[in-house]
Amino acid sequence: MLYNSEDLLNMIHLTKSDILHLAKLSGLTLTEKEVKELSYDLSSVITFFEELKETNTKNILPTSQTTGLENITRADKIDTNQTLSLEDVMYNANDNKNNLFKVPIILKK
Fold first, then answer.
1. Cross-strand partners of 100
2. CB neighbours of 39 closer than 8 A, spacing ≥ 6?
3. Which residue, 30, 44, 71, 73, could crosslink 34 as a Cys pair with Cβ 3.0–4.6 Å?
4. Which distant-in-sequence residues (6+ apart) come within 8 Å of 52 by Cβ?
5. Structural domains in the chain?
6. Apex 66 CA angle, 65 and 71, nearest 5
7. Element (H or E) spanning 100, and its range?
8. Helix or strand or coil: residue 45?
């Protein structure tokens, strides 16, 4: 997106610290070049959203979609030709109890 000098003066500026914080929250590792580029790009996005805040939406009704389409669902039927018997399911289970798979604890108190 290209900005003129007036746009740049009015743009919200995210700092390197802001970008590194967002990267940490996102689990991303960024190069210095990426930090610089994202600082500019994300600042322009935030500036755009600030501009949108000024839009008068007082008489605009909220909408969740605009196409008029509705979800089409099918009946939830079990196709016994595509299911396994309990014996078949448990056949290769390393460990089970009361017809449930028994697995090692992964979370500790």
1. 97
2. 13, 14, 15, 16, 18, 19
3. 30
4. none
5. 5-53 (1.10.20)
6. 55
7. strand 100-101
8. helix
Q: What are phi and psi of 36, to 5 degrees?
A: -65, -45
Six-digit token string for 28: 């991303």
Share of the chain residues as helix, strand and coil, in percent rounded to the nearest 5: 45, 5, 55
Q: Specify the residue for token string 């017809």.
A: 99
Calpha distance 67→86 (Å, rounded)? 44
pLDDT in tens, 48-94: 888 888 899 899 888 888 888 888 888 888 888 999 989 999 988 88
Tell me the HSE value of 73 on the side-chain side, using a 13 A CA sphere: 4
Under a CB-based contact definition with an 8 Å cutoff, are residues 21 and 58 in contact?
Answer: no
The rounded distance, in Å, linking the Cα atoms of 35 and 15 is 9
Q: Could you tell me what percent of the chain has a pLDDT over 90?
A: 31
